[in-house]
Structure formats: C-alpha cells, structure tokens
Amino acid sequence: MAATQYLADWQAYPFQIDQTRLTFHLDPRATRVLSQIEFRRIAPGDLVLDGVGLTTLHLAIDGKPVTATPEGERLVIRDLPDAFTFQAEVQIDPQANTALEGLYLSGGMFCTQCEAQGFRHITWYPDRPDVMAPFHVTIHSDMPVLLSNGNPVSQSAGMAEWHDPWPKPAYLFALVAGDLRAVSDSFTTMSGADVALNVWVRPGDEPRAGYALESLIRSMQWDERAYGREYDLSVFNIVAVDDFNMGAMENKGLNIFNSKLVLATAETATDGDYERIEGVIGHEYFHNWTGNRITCRDWFQLCLKEGLTVFRDQQFTSDMRSAAVKRIADVQTLRARQFREDAGPLAHPPRPDHYQEINNFYTATVYEKGAEVIGMLKRLVGDDAYRAALDLYFSRHDGQACTIEDWIAVFQDATGRDLTQFKLWYTDAGTPRLTMTETFTDGTLVLDFAQTTAPTPGQPEKPARVIPIALGLIGPNGDQVLDTTVLEMTDATQSFRFDGLGARPVVSLLRGFSAPVTVTRQMSPADQALLLAHDTDPFARWQAGHDLALDGLIARATGATGGAEFIRALAGVLDDAPADPAFAALCLALPGDEEIATTIATRGAVPDPDAIHAARRAMMTEIATAYEAQFAGLYDAMATETYHPDAKGAGRRSLRLACLAYLSRLDGGDRAQHLFASADNMTERQGALEQLIATGRAAQPLAEFEAQFRDNRLVMDKWFMVQPLRAAPGDAVARARELAARPDFDWKNPNRFRALIAGLTANHAAFHAADGSGYDFVAEWLMKLDPVNAQTTARMSSAFETFARYDTARQAKARAALQRIADLPGLSRNTAEMVTRILA
Ligand code: ARG
Ligand code: ZN
C-alpha cells in the first residue's frame, strides 16, 4: 500500500527555476527528451526531482555528468552550488502509454496530460505545482502540426519552437504533434491585443468544430465583462483528442479536450452536448486566470482553482442561457454526485488533508461543492464585495501558487469580516442537515432551526457552520408577503421571528439553494402545492414540486399510497408549460430511482431497487393517463423547425421529450418510432431511441442507428450507453455483456468504456440486481481495465460507494465483488485506495 501524503507535511522547495528548456525528438516507441533547467537556491536542501518510468540516458550538472541513482520515483542530488543548470536526456515510450498520463498517442497523434502528476512520466522535474518556470520548448517530428504552450517562436519543416513567458508549474505543460486541421478566428482583447484562435481537429472534422470556437469567443468576452480578465498570449489553441481520461485540460495557451467536448453538429450532438461544450470551453478558458496565473501551492488546495472555476463556468452558462434552469440542473447534479459522496465512505472535505493518490480527489466534492462554497461566500458578502475581493485576489496573488488560507484572507481583507467559522466549509466533510420547525401565533411566525452533520471518515465531531438561509414567505392566497431575506445561521440551533403577518404564511425555504444542506421540515402536500403554483423563486418552486413527487414515490415504493397531490398539481405546471418549456420539463421529470433510493436511506430505511423502479413506472403511467391530451398537445406544439442549439430551442425539445416519456407509456412507442425516423437532430433521435428501448421496440432502430453512425466514435458511444441504461432492469446486464463482447467495444478508450459500464451503473435496478449480476459484471471490467488505465478504473469504482445502504444479501454480493478487486495481484495504487476506502 502506498504512503499517505499529508497537508501538514508540506515544505517549500529549496530552489527556484529561472528557465526550463525542453527538446523533444518524437518517436512512437522511443521519444527522447532533453531538458536544461536553470535552478537557483532559495533555501537549504537537496535537489529532489520526480520521474516515473523513464529510461535515463544522461544526467549532468553545469555540463559535468553526474551519477545519481534514482531512489524509486525520485532522484536526489546533494552538495550543489547556489545556481546551476541541470541537464537530462531520457527516453520514453508513448505508444506503450495506455494510462493516458504524460506523453501518449491518440489516433496516431502525440499529446500530453500532465495534471496532476503526469510530467514526471516525461522527464525528471520538480513535479509540484508551487515550482513555476517560463518554458522554452523545441519539438522535432515529421508530424505536420507541432504545438506547445505560449507563443510560437519559429516553425520549419520537422521542427517547431515555442516560448511561454508566464511562469507555470509542470502540470500545465502540453505538447501536441499530429496531422491536424485548424478552424480559426481571432479575438481583440479589451486593451486591443490581437489573439489568434484555433480549434485543432483531425482532417474531416472541421465542420464539427464551429460551436467550440464560438463558445471560446463568448468565454473570452464574458471573462472581460464579468471579471475584468484579459487573455495574455498571442495565440490560444484548443486540440480535440479521442483518448482522454477526463473532460479537458487548461494547459497554458494549449487546452487539450476530450473530442466529445469539442465536436458537434445537429445530427451528431444533443442539446446537452452543446451546453456542455460551451460550459467546458468556458471552464478551461477561465482557468487561465483561476488556475494558471494564480495556481495551487499543493494538490490539497485543488478546490482553490477547481471550485472557483466551476463557479465561474456556472455563472457563464447562467448568463448565456436560463439562470433558473441552470441552477436547478446544478443542484440536481450536486445532490446526485456530491451529497452521495458526502454521505458515504468516500466523504472528504473540499480541501482534504491527506490522500494516497491525488487523481482520486478530482471529485464532486472538490469541484461542485467547492463551487457551492464560493456561492455561499458571495451571498454572505454581497455582489459588490465579492467583486472587490476577486479584484484583490488577482492583484495580490498574480504569479503565485496559493492556498485556501490566502483565498479566505482576501475576503477578510476586502470585507472586514471574520471568516474563521466559514472556513469549516473547506475543512469539514459531510452535508449538514438543517431542520426547521415553525409556530404561528397572533401574527408572529417563529422559525426554529437546528443543524447537525453526521460523522464522516476520520471526522467524528462536527462543529456548527455558517449557513446562509435564503427564504421568502408566501401568503395563503399565493401572494408573496416577504421578499427573499438571507438569515445567517451560526449556531447549532437558532430562532428567527417575523411579526405583523395577517395569516399563517408558507415558508419558501432555501431559495436559490442558498447552502449545500439537506432540509427536514414538516410540510403538508397542500402547502407544497401552493409553492409549486405561486413561489416567485424558481428554484424553490421547482423544489416544492420535486418534494411532492418524491414523497409520493417513496410512499409507493414502501408499500403505502401517495402521489395524488403531485398528480393534481401537475395541471398547473402543464398550463404554464408553454411560457417556460425548459422549466416545465424539469418539473415534469420525476425523481430518478437513485434519488428515491438515497432519500429512503436518508430517512433510515432500506431501499428496494425493484420496488422503487416499479413505483416510478406505475406513477408515470398514471400521470400519462391523467393528462394524455395535454401531453399530446404539448408534444406537437413543441416541435422545432430549423435546429439551433440555443437555450430556447433546447428548452422546447426538453419539454417535448418529457411529454414523449409519458406518452410512450400509453402509445407503445408509436410517437417515438415516428420521431426517430423523422427527426433532423440527435437530441430528438436519441430521446426517441431511449423510449423505444424502454418499450422493447428498439431492435430495428438500433440497427439503423448503427448502420448510419458506425464510423462516428462519439455517436457510437451514445449507442453503447443508452442500451444498458434504458433496458428493462432484468435484461440490462445480459445486454451489456453482449455489447462488451463486440469487436467495436474498444474498451481501452475511456469514452467507450464509460459509455457501456456507466450506462449500466446508472440503471439503478440493473446495477443493484438482487442476484449480484450487475456487481459482478462491473467488477469484472474494472479488473480488466485496471492494469491498462488505473485512473479511469479508480474513478469508476465509486459506483460501489453506496453499497452499504442496501439489504444484507445485496451488501454481501457487492462486498464480494469489491473484495475480488482488492485481491487482484498488482492492483494499482489508484484503485487500491478507492476500494479500501469503500470497504472500510
Ligand atoms: N484541470 C482539469 C479541469 O479542468 C482536470 C484535469 C484532471 N485530470 C486528471 N487526470 N486528474 O478540471
Ligand atoms: Zn478545472
């Protein structure tokens, strides 16, 4: 078992680097990397360099060969002068690199991924984010396009030179060499500097890169407008690669993207894909200031850049599209991924204080909760103070590698507030539970709040946190009697009173989801229906309907009756639907099986996946029957003419598909079949296909889809994903096994692997099949992938993180599957850490 790294052990690096020069002689099997690094001492200590899997050919200090022997993955050189040049020549094998970390090949092109610790797979270097240097890179290769960070210095046949003047840590290094074509534009920054913009794709993919390029321009404009941040090089390159472990990477001036987050046409990408492309292009671009110009001192501080950059990309999408719809979608993701993580064996704070493998900490907690914490901070200090604090952050810390303490100090200094208690949001794991009880007498409403947070691994005690509680009051006739007010809760229990009320109001609680907490309150279905009909806060309005549906579904899944009030309240939602189709679609979507199971578990009972699945289907059929005419009318009315991937069109299509899901319960898939055959866009084709799979009429459409898209990897990923996802739970594992046996199940490609395996794990009743077949299938494939790509294996093992909430028979089967993974000889450090934590 690998050693645990602790935040408390961090020590400053004793040297500064004035210049890093790298020369690459690219070759698929034997790439040679020459480095020349100018070190200058700033404190006593030895030179420690990181390197993994390198064939070291030559090492020298100031031109004199040295014979240092690597101690594992480190090279330690002692007795050095105060300033010297370190030189190394190493050889690496990009073609053997299936882990996709460091320098590797994807579809015949060379590319890199260095965050978090990939650079040590390229050459000996202080591979830590607080060692920053300007880079000068020379690439020798017969590939036509040779790219690295910064500005181009010279290009000639077989060679290119790049210079990045902005000091950066090694994790932001990038190199690309391939037969690529650019889709280009230019941008003039607010101070008048011209920037060449290129999106690099494989020949033939140029027509699919336009939306990414437009999104980049919108991102650059937005960051100038919203944060006063300007771009700082003469060129900005984006490269799409097919083999990539995560979404994308913010390497300075040379972002590298998973091709699924770049390539899109109406025929091949859904509205959701377009929105993600825009959001991730923004995210990586925004990192130029929040991540690159100001980076992290160490990897424990990862949320310093990721939480802030997610928060910024969420703001960007809200501004480009519908803020209300974006907020609801973000909260749904947060609950599905982060609350789930926070409630289980993998719970950790946004700023962890120890880890074994840092790649296991690119989590929903670091990213999404990290963003929520910033949203709370902004709500507490106000918009103007937030902007002032950010201005101070940029001016004070430009060029530095920082900590969460630096970030908090900026807010304290800009606002004069003491944020000591607020900092608990960064250092403590777990989702606080906020309980509210209300009493109303003689025109006075008293709200009693209590907060508790359950223990998480390694953190038994949970002191009270600062919780901004945004609320409003709605009168019995539906009028708002109190506009949004933010209460600041700081104690374990606290009361707030509201006087002078004519009648008992309904509390619209946690408006805009003002804090990442779960809420417990007694509320009658009538009050929930009142909020669903009249709340002025769109998030709280959606939440009221969602809770009503969830309560009904849970009652049904646990042998009681329920849901009648929700079904009745939908009449109002359907009446209002044409005015805001995207919002209506969110209100019409029933909570998924996973959320129902989570909520049952949170309430102290054992969820039954089959009963949950049956209850949800039955309720859908009932709703469909009750409103068949309205669904049919809306389905026709929401047809779109020419496809545009904008929020307006996407909203209409989302409502249309929400209606189709209900109608397919009654028409046996007739409409879906017609839509599948006639739609001119992937959003509706995929939506229709999913309904056809669920109704068991998909054999022919699946064959047609395959015939049409067999040569398009990204579209075929959808084909692999929807089948296990939408198949009846009893058939899904068998179907997944058939798909896994196909020659085009190119499982070493992370997108393809994830499509099939995560498609199955997202089918709740199939993954948690009583016979353990879901667990066995997933464990089998994780064991197969681990030696090839440990990072993706480890990430996907979190499918098991909820196993302890199910019945003892299922638990035993999941535990056995996890134990088989744990016992695999040579199991990676990545997966070993995950499985050990899940089993603990
Ligand atoms: N910094 C990237 C982002 O934009 C994530 C890259 C992480 N990759 C990894 N292998 N850990 O969020
Ligand atoms: Zn990021």
TrEMBL record:
It holds the Pfam family DUF3458_C. The keyword Transmembrane does not apply. Residues 211-422 form the Peptidase M1 membrane alanine aminopeptidase domain. One of its GO terms (molecular function) is zinc ion binding. Its EC number is 3.4.11.2. Residues 95-172 form the Aminopeptidase N-like N-terminal domain. Belongs to the peptidase M1 family. This is Aminopeptidase N. The gene is pepN.
